[in-house]
Design a protein that fits this description.
The complex is a heterodimer of chains A (926) and B (300).
Chain A: H1 2-8, E1 25-29, H2 33-36, H3 41-49, E2 53-57, H4 63-67, E3 70-72, H5 79-92, H6 98-104, E4 128-129, E5 136-137, H7 161-168, H8 181-192, H9 211-218, H10 224-231, H11 235-247, E6 255-259, H12 261-264, H13 269-282, E7 293-295, H14 302-307, E8 314-315, E9 319-320, H15 331-338, H16 348-360, H17 384-392, E10 398-402, H18 406-409, H19 413-421, E11 425-430, H20 435-442, E12 455-460, E13 469-472, E14 477-481, H21 494-508, H22 518-522, H23 549-557, E15 559-564, E16 571-573, E17 586-587, E18 621-622, E19 650-653, E20 658-661, E21 740-741, E22 759-764, H24 780-783, E23 790-793, H25 795-801, E24 808-812, E25 817-824, E26 831-833, E27 836-838, E28 840-844, E29 865-866, E30 878-884
Parallel strand pairs in A: 1-2, 1-6, 2-3, 6-7, 10-11, 11-12, 22-28, 23-25
Antiparallel strand pairs in A: 4-5, 8-9, 13-14, 14-18, 15-16, 15-17, 19-20, 21-29, 22-30, 24-25, 24-30, 26-27
Helix pairs in contact in A: 1-13, 5-10, 5-11, 5-13, 10-11, 17-19
Chain B: H1 2-9, H2 19-28, E1 43-48, H3 57-66, E2 93-100, E3 115-122, H4 131-135, E4 141-143, E5 149-151, H5 161-165, E6 172-173, E7 180-181, H6 187-191, H7 197-201, E8 207-211, H8 212-228, E9 235-237, E10 250-254, H9 274-299
Parallel strand pairs in B: 1-10
Antiparallel strand pairs in B: 1-8, 2-3, 4-5, 6-7, 9-10
The chains are: A alpha/beta (926), B alpha+beta (300).
Chain lengths: 926, 300
Amino acid sequence: MPGLGTSLGRGAATNYQQDLANSDCILFMGSNMAEAHPVGFRWAMRAKEAGGTLVHVDPRFTRTSAMCDVHVGIRSGSDIAFLGGLVRYVLEQDRYFREYVVHYTNAATIIAEGYEDSEDLDGLFSGYRGDRRTGRYDPRAGQWGYEAAEGVIPEWAGAGPEYRMFREELGMLGHSLEAGPQMYSRSRVESTGELAGGPASDPSLEHPRCVFQILRRHFARYTPEFVADTCGCSADELVRVAELLCSNSGRERTSMVVYALGWTQHTTGVQVIRTAAILQLLLGNIGRPGGGIMAMRGHSTIQGSTDLATLYDSLPGYLPQPCADESHDTLDSYVRYEGLSTGYWANYRKFIVSLLKAWYGDAATPENDFGFGWIPRIDGDYSQLPYFEAMSKGEVKGYFLFGQNPAGGSPNAGLHRAGLRNLDWLVVVDWFEIESANFWKDDPGTPPPADIRTEVFLLPAAAAPEKEGSLTNTQRLLQWHDKALDPLGDSRSDAWYVYQLGKRLKQLYAGSTDPRDQALLHLTWDYDFDEPPTLPDGSVSRIAGEPDLEQVLMEINGYRVNERDPATGRPRLVGGFGELEEDGSTACGCWIYSGVYPGPGRNRARERRRSHDGIEAEWGWAWPHNRRVLYNRASADPAGNPWSERKKLVWWDASLGRWTGADEPDFDAGTPPGYQPPPGAEGLAAIAGSQPFIMKPDGVAWLFAPGGVKDGPLPVHYEPVESPVENLLHPGQHSSPVLRYLENPLNRLAEPMSPEFPVVATTYRLTEHYLSGPMSRFNSWLNELMPEMFVELSPELAAERGIVPGGWLTVRTPRARIEARALVTRRMRPFRVAGQVVHQIGLPFHWAYAGEVVGDNANDLTALLADPNVSMHEAKAFACQVEAGRREGNRAEPTVRSALTLHHGPAPDTPGAAQPEGRFGHEPGA
Amino acid sequence: MSRELELTEVAPLPGGESLTAEGLERLIGPFRRGAVPEPAEEMGFYTDTSVCIGCKACEVACKQWNQLPADGFTFSGNSYDNTGALSAESWRHVKFVEQFSVWEAGGGDGGAMPGRWLMMSDVCKHCVEAPCQHACPTGAIIHNEFNNVYIQPDICNGCAYCIAACPFGVITRSTLDNHAHKCTLCYDRQKDGLVPACAKACPTASIQFGPVEELRERARTRVEELRRRGVADAWLYGHEPTAGYSRLNAFYLLLDRASVYGLPEAPRNPWLSMRGDYLRAVLSVLPPLAVLITALLRGR
């Protein structure tokens, strides 16, 4: 999420879900929270009960819309136009929170003279190189940087690896889903850090090149009429939403924005989120209770998996994975390129050295760069989409799949299946024989099994109650769960498989002197239980070889290498990342999680003490440092007093000489509001007491992003690549000029505005199923609630195409043709876009060819088309054709017998009186 | 979850060593009188449809706790409702009512909502005077100590009189065992001091469980609050007795007329007609009897 990272400092939701209840107005956009996050949605309902206003902006009228006070229908892929209209309204009507904007954002900062806006270059920013389609921006040539106070535009020192790659070849770094420090490093070095006397600024916001004025000019054409014409809503609707947000923001009130994958899955996804950040910053809603931006995550612990670096280009805690480049040759050069001198990232060396000590233990010494050379270097883009594209060409030999189902759940799933068919071997660890495990025999579109060479190993996985561990949820909250019972049969936890695999590999390579094996051989890999683990009933677990995940968590938390805790005899745990050192005396597996296990027996993720104050500081533990609202210094004014009594959260207590309040301050607790950094200050000392965004090198949030985003310093409305509609803002630049497209016969695209594909489509989820269905389509109780693949469409479109409610229809794109039942509903409404009627359909993506209920897969329709920042695909807006009737060809058959035909005898080991009521025919009496 | 279901398939028969004892128990059991339960506070459901998000967690929680079978994978095409109706296998049913204006090609909706989507989790009403209980010839249907209507599955003979009697169409007969089944208000959970599964699972507190008097008070306050906020059509269904029907111990806060939700506007307890029906039945015998007697007398 560089959208949030570049704007605010961290790529994570700013607030917590319970905080929705403190909001006066909530804008849901790109999120169907009531359906996709129904449990968290209770807090939104709480806000409504308290008199708050809920607004839903979405192509479909969903169960979320049903709960909202206002629903505005907009065409899929027009989000930036709508949000840009809101930004313009706030600026033109002078409704921005001036004191907040002047002090807490870079509105006053002056941008270099050579910068040219997309409004002046027909949809391109200065610094563009390419063919207006898959080109690149060179921010240095484009002069996106800050102007120096002393009138000197500095030499752009030491361009980071990202920049170097730009010169040479596409791809490589910067696909990180989160804003890692590389986002800032370039920005600091290239735009702010080397500026003599800091960046020039004009607090009156009058300078024609100050960010505020650039912003005003940039969004000037996003008038209500333009928005109406592009989005298909009415001008009044835009004004109404804008008024609601404006009147519910300011000192006394706050508004929150909630988004999910409806914003991210676009070629402009990062910029959609950037627009929301700009809006919330102008309204003064970031860092405040009931404000901020809630990024609703799509899977369980997806936040945790990016925090702990399941991404190919990121190490734990969002340190960039070193690349095969001289800048990352040694630890010193790596830190020089990736670290910062101001802001919190100045501690970079402490984080990477402690990580290396955690991984390589005693083998990591100052003499060998703490083993930095053992970390594998990346030399290309190994994110999922290019990787599977390469797999489909037979360039990948083997693959492990834990808890993922690319054959059903990935965009252009057909291409992903072609990838799986070209492997030598595939290991699938799952509860059921999912699509990714049975593709070689049950996929109706597959060649005969004999023609597929992939050898598939399906290993049984344990379910959540059968293993311990922690989940990190959407609000960065770590919650530990204990194991309730042993898994059935040969099922094992994912951790068991990985731990045992590591042990066996270490054994296999034992004694090797090959340099490339040293990383594996020196890896610390000893997490055995000290005593046999027991279950809650006191009995000893029958599973042997399970790793002790609390030991893993202790390593993640960090410890002092040379000190022993007298109580445990183990190394002394550190209390937080403030204690980490760069000399190798501390080890820490993920610096942002440091503090989660601050002392022996104190697993804070396991705490469940209620305080009933909303913050619930002792219920689980949130990174960083148990701060529940990020940037909460901004909940107080520059002098350190709460903006209002009603919205106070963290403030400066002069008598105590520190920041205090309900939440843990996201600021140096002892830095007074009036502190001004001396010249040449480094680290946090370079951040003034009135600058709440400590992760940014200049301490303020970025309305204008001088770096860190690959598709421009400001958001621009571009059409989705496959849009049937003309770009009304920039007729010469239909879609993003820097998108990523993977040329492949299985990945053909529709021409923009093609009459062959006139209908706008979007994909979505239902409450009743989970993702592509591996966890839900094997469950009769869920299947009966949503038994068949369907498509939602308006009665107008149905009439036009002769489609009967409940009957069959076919949806076609250049990639695939699928059939589905027609759910004809007035909840779907056509849009009037640029004078034309444009139809929109919605496709849930829960069905494929494994399970009790099967059907065609919406993911077969989508393309591998990606955003340049994070390689996120564009599944939320594409063009298609809709016809009545079924498609030709084979159809999938259920692979599992439905449980509803089973005989329901009495529950075993249960007396008659305690038999479940529904065990029909159970024995009476007893 | 389905793993649990699969397990039952291979579950062993009850212990073989005590088969004779069990046979004896089976003969004597029906004549035993258990301890009469202590009278308890009257408990019920208050379902506030204004906060129902239609997630169907109640349906799943009910089926899981009570181990009810799934009853068909049929796409209805009717909004998001593929359950269709309450039945012996589905004791909770979320209804979806779409009320939308016809789209006009003139553009957006001008900031007004194009309509609304009502959702409501339906369940047995647990009538204070329950027609099903009146109609049951075997005494299988009782009011238990929580004043909830409960079908004793071991006494029900499957006659289906209750099905005809219920004005809400709550009960059906299972094709698996040919007995009538419906919501028990989680009698088993209540006895252990637990909240019914559906209320426990409801994420927005649309389904609330508790002492009925307390719920009625809460519901009244809620209606006043909604009306103050301009939701003029909010009202309570089954909260007070009507001329033709008793109060319901599972009552609703609705946002439109009852018939919009598929509920009878004015339910009438068939029992109220019974005295007259019996009288008419007796009286209707008299004329043919008179004719018969006359004929017999004449014939002589």
